[in-house]
Amino acid sequence: MIRGVRGATTVTADSNEEVLLETSRLVQEMAKANDVQPEDIASVIISTTTDITSAFPARAVRSLEGWTYVPVMCTHEMDVPNALEKCVRLLMHINTEKKQQDIEHIYLNHAVALRPDLVK
Q1: DSSP conformation class of 19
Q2: Rounded to 5, what percent of the chain is helix, strand, coil?
Q3: The pTM is what?
């Protein structure tokens, strides 16, 4: 069964270093919380708000040990008024036997405001 795991985080500044660091942290926490190994991942889609232009967050994923061949794609979020700023969102498609309700979605930094119902 393929399931989707959602995650999001924010950065304080649009800097290459911070975008890559926070994306890496998010991906690793998502994988750990759901007991996922790179070979269990079908694909990863990463979106950023339009105020993030300093780096491709996919670089952070590809640089993790064992993640070189995980298909990753970046895109921009819709530019909606009053939306959360400097936000990186991630959708990881994983092969798992877990039920939908057992998937742990991860929200970090100011992104916890996006889905407070899913934050543990």
Answers
A1: H
A2: 30, 30, 45
A3: 0.94
